[in-house]
Amino acid sequence: MVSEMDNQSDVIDDIQFQILQLKSSREWNPRAKFLIILLNVQDFASEEIQKNLSRKILTVLWSWKVINVVILMECEQHNFIFEKNDSLVNIYTWFPYNDSNNCEDVTNVILMDNWTVDQKFRLGTTLFPNKVSDNLHGCPLKISSFNFEPMIIGMEDKEDGTVDFKGGLEIEMVKMFANSANMSIVFRVPTPENQHWGVKFDNGTWTGLPGEVLSHHTDMTIVNFWYKCHLINEFECLRPHMIDAARWFVPCAKPYPRWMSITRVFNKSLWIGFILSYIIISFFMSFMVKLVNTFLPREHHSKEYSGVIHCLLNFWAIILEESATNNPPRNSSLRTIFLTWVMFCWAMNTVYQTFLTSFLVDPGLQKQLSSEDDILDSKIRYVIFKVITFLLPHLASDRYRRGEDRPDFMACFDQMAFKGDLALVFSTQRLGYIIAASYMDGDGKPLICSFEEIITNQMISIHIIKGFPMVDKFNKLVGKIVDAGL
Which SMART domains match (predicted)? Predict the structure, then answer.
């Protein structure tokens, strides 16, 4: 990078403009080596003024985590009789995290070397040495997060306005990071509370956890983040440490109410057929009695079955296995009809009582939603959170037009578990833990279920500001943690 401006403020603006142009590219790499050449600097050629200018330039670059920088400026020339300076170019740089008082502020700008009239470096030092050591002298590692079991557990407010967490899988991981680099951890919680996951505005800015990183308030975010560094250019992701799955979660099928066992033995068509048979045979019996009575003397008439009402009552008694009448039909034709109905009712009652007992002991489960098509074809309401559709845009297509977005995860879980009228897409890692902890019935069975169908597998990674100087060290540590099975 070259600047030909001739005053300090214009030089700073020019460098900042060039950095913003580079930063807009997908290939932007803050950990690259930057060589800055300042021309036309005669007005500030003394070493003290040059250090002050270098400090301002390095401060601007450090806001984007650029530290592999050397600045070249023309030296002040001495042509006095008793003194001569043979240096042509001064080379300045700085080293962050040198001690606990020099963590992130650019204060220790040093004159690294000089280029002499002999066309060689005076000291011969490496222009781009390792700027960050393994010991960061207790400098803070700023992390934004919030309660999200099992990754982040037990948030506690501290007197200084920060927070702390009791434990969790990713909390233990970042503690290993801090111990390995001798850093202190400072936790932050994003605000506002209902936008922890972040909302993207039309101007490209974010709230929540992404906003914490992009505004440089924090170094990293931990909260079971699915990998999204391919979507946000200013993000960088550490090596993934887990794999999560996005699934449909639905209410578990509830047992049938025991009172429904009375009707569940036979399906609807069989009940209708049985009732129609009862009515038809009652009318048929009444008709046959009238027909037979026309050929018999009065004393042999079957008065107990002489009308439709009598036939209905007597045949209903047979259904209930009660005595129909003390005077059964005397005519063989009528007795045949009567016995046919008795045998039919006896067979139906035997089957009914057998299965009724089974249903009373074990009512069974109502229909379980078992696929995405079942959910979309049913009338059940379903939720697809906006934070998920950002990563999985196909879930916002017309196929899922009934999908809702809601701000409160836990309210959705409660409605799904206890009311049974909601389904949703969510993280298997997260909701599996919540179900085991909070949504089990008295028999130890879950109230929220999923099915084998997986929408997508997602890598879980810790998101950091692009150019974070400890990324290589932390990546190696993540690899060791995963390989060790911790």
Answer: Lig_chan-Glu_bd (SM00918)
- State phi, psi for 236 to the nearest 5 degrees: -135, 145
Token output for 202 = 């039309």
Q: 51: which residues sit within 8 A by CB, 6+ positions away?
A: 92, 109, 111
pLDDT digit string (tens) for the chain, length 486 residues: 888 887 888 889 999 999 888 888 878 888 889 999 988 765 556 788 888 888 999 999 988 889 899 999 887 654 433 345 566 788 899 888 877 777 777 778 888 888 877 777 888 888 888 888 888 888 889 999 988 888 899 888 888 777 899 888 999 999 999 999 999 999 988 877 667 887 778 777 888 888 888 888 889 999 888 988 888 888 889 999 999 999 999 999 887 777 777 777 888 898 899 999 999 999 988 888 888 877 766 666 667 778 888 888 888 888 888 877 767 677 788 888 888 989 999 999 888 888 888 877 777 777 888 899 999 998 899 999 988 998 899 999 999 999 999 888 999 999 999 999 999 999 999 999 999 999 998 888 899 999 888 999 999 999 998 888 889 999 999 999 999 887
Q: What is the spatial distance between Cα 73 and Cα 50, in angstroms, rounded to a whole number?
A: 8
- Specify the DSSP element, H or E, that contains 156: strand 153-157
Contact 305, 285 (CB under 8 A): yes
Cross-strand partners of 423: 382
- The whole-angstrom distance between residue 71's C-alpha and the CA centroid of its chain comes to 45
Q: What is the rounded distance in angstroms from the CA atom of residue 62 to the CA atom of residue 72?
A: 17
Name the CATH topology of 366-459.
D-Maltodextrin-Binding Protein; domain 2 (3.40.190)
Contact residues for 253 (Cβ-Cβ < 8 A; gap 6+)? 365, 366, 367, 368, 449
Q: Tokens in use for 288?
A: 């046959």
Architecture (CATH level 2) of domain 140-241+463-483:
3-Layer(aba) Sandwich (3.40)
Joined together, the tokens standing for residue 331 give: 């005519």
**Residue whose C-alpha is closest to residue 369's, from 416, 324, 331:** 416
Positive or negative torsion for Cα 104, 106, 110, 116: positive
* CA separation for the pair 114, 91 (Å, rounded): 6
CA distance linking residue 470 with residue 134, whole number of Å: 9
